[in-house]
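Lab notebook, bench 4. Still working through the backlog of constructs that have no structural model yet. Next entry is a single chain of 234 residues. Request: give me the structure tokens for it.
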Amino acid sequence: MTLPILYSLRNCPYAMRARLAIYKSKQVVELRDIVLKNKPAAMLAASPKATVPVLVLSANKGVNADVLDESLEIMLWALAQSDPFNLLRTQVLKSHTASSELESSTKLTGILRLISLFDDEFKTCLEAYKCAKRYHETNLDDCRQACEVYIQNLEQRLSKHRYMFDENESLADLALLPFIRQFARIERQWYLQSHYPEVKRWLNQYLQSPMFTKVMAKYPLWSPEQAVIKFGDI
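Model written out:
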């Protein structure tokens, strides 16, 4: 059987969270690691956006079809195939009552809303913070403080339960992980001394997990001549 093809970049946060969801969903894909300076023609044909991740679900006579090129779309696709850890919170209680179904739907809505907040707002602040540090700009503190508004949101959540929404991880935890990792790496010493113990606990448990080690494993860059590299919980 032909596997879906995932074009990925090891340290890209969007590609990272796509791989996280694929791993947690126990799906298997053909992994094609690339570099942006040398984008494969097959990837460009599949997605003119020319950014990773790109997931090609099927191909017909050389013409790609069913292509997902947004990281959240890929995450939702993977978990729609299999969600053994209920990351989407769509599994209803054994009672199968209308209220339990409504509760599940409400939780997923909240999860997607939090992801959207960080994708639309926090990511902009994070990019400004990264630039301020890289180019030694005078507004570094202001940029960090803009990010902290969102970090404080997470700290409050994580002070109530182990993960973003309750005692079990959800799609939100996986979707935010790569960006909080980036935040923590910009001013490493400041972050280690910061007053966000729950965020640090949450991040560390992921960074030290076997899952993260597998998701961040380094593979040879893809070429048409190489053997297929399978990625997933295999």
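Notes after review: The chain has a mean pLDDT of 92. The first strand starts at residue 5 and ends at 8. Flag for follow-up if needed.
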